[in-house]
Design brief:
The protein is of the alpha+beta class. The protein folds into 3 domains: 47 residues; 33 residues; 40 residues, no CATH class. It is 54% helix and 12% strand. The chain contains 5 helices and 2 strands. The chain has a two-stranded antiparallel ribbon. Strand 1 and strand 2 form a beta hairpin. Helix 1 packs across helix 3. The radius of gyration is 30 Å and the shape is rod-shaped. The C terminus is likely disordered.
Length: 140
């Protein structure tokens, strides 16, 4: 690529941009000093520094910086799903302790508790809704 002055424009990798920005930030040098030492124009280093401070390494990659709300939402969604799963597990265990999932209850509602044996205790792993294609009662 050529700019309007006939000079060759170069494409900078994220690692190169990061090295220049970190030189400015960690070595306590001005942008002008780093630009002069490395033979680079000051303007891109200033822009990359702002992008880095706003979005970290992803900011230098040209990725749109996430807002704080977007970051929090991305963190919260998996946590909400996990919370829902744990609430369902607790509800099942409460019902088991009250005998709600007795065999007659399960048959009447087309549910089949699946069990596993561990250290002499029997616990419900999960419940399966039986459908005509999943007839577990029939043996091989």
């Amino acid at each position: 690529m050529e700019d309007t002055m006939g000079k060759q424009c170069r494409s900078w990798s994220v690692e190169e941009k990061l090295a220049l920005v970190l030189a400015v930030l960690s070595e306590h040098q001005s942008v002008a000093e780093v630009a002069h030492q490395r033979g680079v124009n000051e303007n891109p280093i200033d822009r990359w520094k702002e992008q880095f401070l706003a979005g970290g390494r992803q900011g230098l990659n040209g990725a749109k910086a996430q807002t704080a709300d977007q970051r929090l939402e991305a963190e919260n969604n998996p946590l909400k799903q996990l919370l829902g799963e744990k609430a369902l597990e607790m509800e099942i265990l409460k019902n088991l302790s009250r005998g709600v999932f007795a065999p007659s209850f399960c048959r009447a509602r087309n549910l089949m508790p699946l069990h596993y044996q561990k250290l002499g205790t029997v616990a419900v792993d999960f419940l399966v809704v039986l459908t005509p294609s999943k007839n577990i009662a029939q043996g091989p």
